[in-house]
Amino acid sequence: MTISLKGLTKGAAAAALVLAALPATAKEFKLGLITPPPHVWTKAAEAFGAELAEKSGGEHSVTVFPARQLGNEAQMLQQLQTGALDMAFMTVAEVSNRVPNMGAFYAPYLANDMTHAAAILRSDTAKGMLEVLPQEAGVVGVGYGSAGMRQILSRGEVNSAADLSGVKLRITPFDPILDFYNLLGSAPTPMPLPAVYDALANGQVDAIDMDVELINVLKYYEHADTLLISNHMMFPMVGLISARVYAGMSDEDKAMVSELMAKHVDTTLDAYIEKSPAWTEKLNTVGITVHTVDAEYFGDVMGKWEEIWAAKAPSLPDLRKTADATK
């Protein structure tokens, strides 16, 4: 039987397509983040890559792509689902857009402070919420980190929650925080991190929802008058592996990669516990007015938020119980 070159070429192409569709067995992993190079998450990702290379005897390596080099989080999550991206450190916020139950982590005043938030995120309740991610989001969650607690930085004076009514306020685009600010009467405005500094400088937004690390590192305070140290929400991160990539790993590699990623993701919790007080204290010295406020400041917003999210996030009651038990 004679096989033409044309037929052979078509066959090779078809075989290549089949191989491309198989679960990845990557040894040079790509890990994406939205955070800039100096950020705690990026440093943790780099440390994870270094230890993975060491523990695997150089068999595995991780190339870290910070600052949205591979796209925004929605785009990176899609890449994880297809196996085009191997790993990511990603806000639980983005995952909650696909798995609403994860929105329970953003219940206002679920955590009192960063130490309390870390205890919640390390709990069996929180870990159990990762189990559905392969089926519902096409990713494997290995553990939680954090970007600290959320605060409110404003270009104008804010003497009461009423002063935030109608204020155009930058948020991360996900429903739990959108609902919080809508209930507050603000005008929540989704905006990617790289656009925030200029938007605050030119008045495109009047205020931002942000953590004390980035308010310091990216100097958002340079275009603000008032900071509310509110700690109104924790802002967790999750270490993710593409379920397709994970399926193609040996059992030994699954264990090694998962354990090491979980270890370094977890270090971000301790980093924020350690550094948040100093970041907060520094913001008392930059020439802006700083108010420390609590749940009472926001009136009935918390109760109304709970009513909205009780049906969307069935894990919310268990997470509240865990929060009460870990105070």
UniProtKB/TrEMBL annotation:
Transmembrane segments: none annotated. One of its GO terms (cellular component) is periplasmic space. Pfam families: DctP. One of its GO terms (molecular function) is carbohydrate binding. The keyword Signal applies. GO terms for biological process: transmembrane transport. It is found in: Periplasm. Gene3D superfamilies: Bacterial extracellular solute-binding protein, family 7. It comes from the Bacteria. Residues 1-26 form the signal peptide. Keywords: Periplasm, Signal. NCBIfam families: TRAP_S1. PANTHER family: DICARBOXYLATE-BINDING PERIPLASMIC PROTEIN, PTHR33376. This is Sialic acid-binding periplasmic protein SiaP. It comes from Falsiruegeria litorea R37. The lineage of its organism: Bacteria, Pseudomonadati, Pseudomonadota, Alphaproteobacteria, Rhodobacterales.
